[in-house]
């Protein structure tokens, strides 16, 4: 079934992965002869800041059409040149590819600037994509997004930062986050219908909104029916959709509700829940959700670029943000430049494999585990020596050459991992080096939505201005201003008229009290909460309730001033809720308000935290390192593997700005976590947990949870064969392989029983910046222990 390759090495003490053939599809196979030269020209245009597109309505004129080539009248009328078929790739973004988890040999999604290309692979064996996408989803900025503007590219700001797939209840969705703050979502079912039959209507988004600044992290939560998005406003926005009825587990749970929390929790309206970080927080490249015992979303776990983890309450009001410092942080010590934080995932223990020895738990012998030095001894242990045993590692490491862990690591003060390389010419403009494009999916967090009318025009864009690329160092590292500074702010320049052309300047943000009035609300937690049109502080609401309940006309006042079925905003850090403004002016003011910090001092419920920690732990990734930790001190030391990619970017100057482990995909069915680096390599690791109550004990440390690295891809054999290009990684995608008997685009027939882990296979696709795609199939053996890479 899967053949083993690579040189024979000593037994690692556990059933490890078996690696088979790597399938490659390059740019010539994807687009045709001449594609490599077009790609190199795109790279030269980026280096020289050459803008060749005419921007209309916020996007290039030839990138507005949604549909397939057969539906495009312009494409049908004349043969399009090859340049029109090779899309440009934006720089310094997050993960820009995804696979459907329900439909087909996988419906494959790749985001290029403001468009998402949808492919149905033509070969189940080689996973090859057709030359033309089956569907293009093109978007343009709405009026709010035009006022928010971009961070990475102020001229063409409506470009995708991140895409992902997930489930809202039974419906699979595709969600995209944009540099202008837009968030757009489609039902994948309607996309599959269009691709499968072509008689279905062209898919349109079911959801479009904005988070006020460059959007980055995305989480789709199936059971709680919500979408969470992080942004460069140092906050997370949770879009909790209205429910016709609450699931029974939520309805019957014994939970001490506060008035405001109960209103939000009943989900009678669409809620925008805005959750800021605490003091010291920064831009948030990725987020995850922590579930309660019933599988409902309870908390957001965010990582900022300083490497700090934040645990944030979604529902509970006025609780403080839990801050988990960078692993090398020492209180009252000077902090040198830490590695930046990039990825986070909450991993439930039910997806961990049991481990009865150090080799099974961490992938190395107990004597090779390195404890951190004082004053951090016992807080984390180092497993980098295990890399010497990884078969066919692309950059083999000698176990004797691994440095001892330092109490506070000092990293070279090189440019921050998300900075844009200088674009002032010099050696980088050389044609040879132009073939090695700047590699990096740097962060800039904002999400944009296409709400504008078809007739709307961007009168400020003449298409002739040079591309004024702003360095991501400002977007992620020093993005601390409260306004974009792109135009003077005047309130009277914003028109609420729906026919506005969207070219007005940004307004000054007025304090919230200028556009909502605090009102008391009379309801009990066990009752259906009444409509809320205005913000109210919870404590004041209780006092006002007692004071005003007997006054004549009080209920009439509320009923007359509150419009039914308005979308709502909840600020849990303030304990306030209010109606979402329906005017353009009000929405822009909200998005342009000053940044706030969660400075609450009330601890989060310790019983809830203990319960959460008993079922799961957190994986955090940096520029180079991977860390697994629990918030429960009884679970012992955190486990860290330093630099598992082990790639020297000196051979390619552009690669220096791609050093970030910013792509994490958890595949619980395989007990597998895929961690991708923009540098161009991917780590396959298995999370493990010892069944012993006291864990694995060593000299000065104890470990209960860990991970072992099975593979680093592409393997050394693949790289020596020239399969991996000298380009950075554009995105990674993982999805199940289609099963026999599944009709149309479905991966599994409706009602069919789920396969066992021994027969379940997943596809991993690595998409590089030269449009090359490397594909592997992955599975587990009969015992669920042996990871198979086909």
| The level-1 CATH class of the domain at 18-234 and 277-412 and 601-789 | Mainly Beta
Put simply, the count of helices is 15
Radius of gyration: 26 Å
CATH homology superfamily name of the domain at 18-234 and 277-412 and 601-789: YVTN repeat-like/Quinoprotein amine dehydrogenase
Strand content: 25-35%
End-to-end CA span:
8 Å
Q: Which sequence of strands runs across the widest sheet?
A: 13-14-15-16-26-27-25
Mind telling me which CATH architecture of the domain at 18-234 and 277-412 and 601-789 this is? Answer: 7 Propeller
Count the strands? 40
Shape field: globular
The main sheet comes to:
7 strands, mixed
Mean pLDDT, as a whole number? 76
> Which percent bin holds the helix content?
10-25%
Low-confidence stretches: 1-8, 406-563
Estimated structural class:
alpha+beta
Remind me, CATH topology of the domain at 18-234 and 277-412 and 601-789? Methylamine Dehydrogenase, Chain H
Write the layout of secondary structure elements.
Elements: E1 18-19, E2 23-25, H1 27-31, H2 35-47, E3 55-56, E4 59-60, H3 73-77, E5 97-99, E6 108-112, E7 115-119, E8 135-138, H4 143-148, E9 160-168, E10 171-178, E11 182-187, H5 188-197, E12 207-210, E13 215-221, E14 226-231, E15 235-240, H6 248-251, H7 259-265, E16 271-276, E17 286-291, E18 297-303, E19 309-313, E20 322-324, E21 341-348, E22 353-354, H8 358-362, E23 370-371, E24 380-382, H9 431-434, H10 472-477, E25 536-537, H11 538-548, H12 554-561, E26 568-571, E27 576-579, H13 584-591, H14 606-613, E28 616-622, E29 626-629, E30 638-641, E31 663-667, E32 672-676, E33 682-689, E34 696-698, E35 701-703, E36 705-713, H15 716-720, E37 729-736, E38 761-768, E39 773-780, E40 787-789
């Amino acid at each position: 079934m899967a053949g083993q390759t690579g040189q024979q090495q000593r037994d690692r003490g556990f059933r490890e992965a078996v690696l088979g053939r790597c399938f490659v599809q390059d740019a010539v196979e994807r687009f045709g002869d001449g594609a490599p030269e077009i790609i190199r020209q795109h790279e030269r245009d980026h280096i020289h800041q050459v803008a060749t597109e005419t921007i209309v309505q916020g996007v290039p004129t030839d990138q507005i059409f949604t549909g397939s080539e057969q539906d495009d009248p312009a494409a049908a009328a004349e043969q399009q040149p090859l340049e029109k078929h090779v899309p440009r790739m934006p720089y310094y973004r997050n993960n820009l590819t995804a696979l459907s988890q329900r439909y087909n040999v996988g419906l494959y999604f790749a985001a290029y600037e403001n468009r998402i290309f949808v492919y149905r692979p033509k070969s189940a064996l080689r996973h090859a994509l057709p030359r033309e996408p089956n569907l293009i989803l093109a978007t343009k900025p709405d009026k709010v997004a035009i006022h928010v503007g971009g961070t990475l590219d102020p001229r063409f700001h409506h470009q995708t930062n991140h895409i992902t797939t997930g489930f809202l209840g039974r419906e699979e969705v595709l969600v995209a986050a944009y540099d202008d703050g837009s968030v757009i979502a489609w039902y994948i079912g309607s996309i599959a219908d269009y691709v499968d039959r072509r008689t279905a209507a062209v898919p349109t988004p079911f959801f479009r909104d904005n988070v006020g600044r460059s959007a980055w992290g995305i989480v789709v939560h199936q059971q709680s029916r919500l979408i969470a998005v992080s942004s460069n406003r140092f906050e997370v926005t949770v879009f909790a959709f209205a429910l016709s009825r609450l699931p029974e587990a939520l309805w019957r749970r014994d939970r001490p509700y506060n008035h405001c929390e109960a209103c939000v929790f009943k989900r009678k309206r669409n809620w925008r829940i805005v959750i800021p970080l605490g003091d010291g927080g920064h831009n948030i490249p990725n987020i995850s959700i922590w579930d309660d015992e019933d599988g409902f979303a309870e908390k957001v776990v965010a990582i900022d670029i300083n490497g700090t983890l934040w645990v944030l309450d979604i529902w509970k009001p006025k609780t403080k943000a839990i801050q988990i410092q960078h692993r090398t942080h020492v209180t009252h010590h000077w902090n040198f430049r830490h590695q930046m934080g990039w990825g986070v995932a909450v991993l439930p223990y039910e997806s961990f494999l049991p481990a009865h020895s150090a080799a099974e738990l961490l992938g190395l012998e107990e004597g090779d585990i390195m404890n951190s030095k004082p004053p951090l001894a016992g807080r984390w242990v180092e497993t980098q020596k295990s890399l010497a045993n990884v078969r066919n590692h692309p950059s083999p490491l000698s176990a004797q050459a691994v440095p001892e862990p330092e109490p506070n690591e000092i990293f070279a003060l090189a440019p921050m991992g998300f900075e844009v390389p200088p674009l002032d010419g010099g050696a980088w403009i050389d044609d040879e080096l132009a073939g090695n494009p700047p590699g990096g999916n740097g962060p800039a967090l904002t999400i944009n939505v296409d709400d504008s009318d078809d007739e709307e025009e961007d009168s400020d864009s003449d298409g002739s201005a040079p591309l004024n690329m702003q360095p991501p160092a400002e977007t992620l590292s020093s993005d601390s201003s409260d306004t974009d500074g792109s135009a003077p702010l005047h309130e009277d320049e914003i028109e609420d008229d729906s026919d506005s052309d969207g070219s007005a300047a940004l307004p000054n943000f007025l304090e919230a009290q200028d556009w909502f009035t605090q009102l008391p609300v009379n309801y009990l937690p066990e009752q259906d909460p009444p409509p809320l049109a205005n913000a109210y502080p919870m404590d004041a609401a209780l006092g006002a309730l007692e004071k005003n309940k007997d006054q004549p006309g009080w209920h009439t006042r509320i009923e007359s001033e509150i419009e039914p079925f308005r979308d709502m905003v909840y600020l849990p850090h303030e304990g306030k809720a209010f109606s979402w403004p329906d005017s353009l002016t009000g929405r822009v003011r909200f998005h342009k308000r000053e940044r706030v910090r969660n400075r609450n001092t009330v601890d989060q419920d310790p019983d809830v935290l203990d319960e959460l920690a008993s079922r799961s732990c957190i994986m955090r990734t940096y520029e180079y390192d991977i860390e697994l930790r629990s918030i429960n001190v009884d679970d012992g030391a955190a486990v860290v593997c330093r630099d598992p990619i082990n790639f020297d970017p000196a051979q390619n100057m552009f690669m220096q700005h791609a050093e970030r482990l910013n792509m994490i995909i958890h595949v619980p069915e395989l007990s597998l976590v895929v961690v991708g680096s923009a540098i161009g390599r991917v780590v396959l690791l298995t999370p493990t947990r010892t069944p012993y109550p006291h864990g694995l004990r060593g000299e000065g440390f104890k470990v209960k949870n860990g991970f072992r690295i099975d593979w680093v891809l592409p393997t050394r054999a693949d790289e020596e064969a020239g399969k991996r290009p000298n380009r950075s990684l554009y995105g990674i995608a993982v999805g199940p392989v289609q099963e026999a008997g599944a009709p149309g685009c479905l991966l599994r027939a409706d009602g069919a029983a789920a396969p066992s882990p021994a027969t379940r296979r997943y596809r991993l696709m690595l998409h590089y910046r030269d449009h090359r795609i490397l594909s592997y199939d992955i599975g587990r053996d009969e015992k669920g222990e042996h990871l198979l890479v086909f």
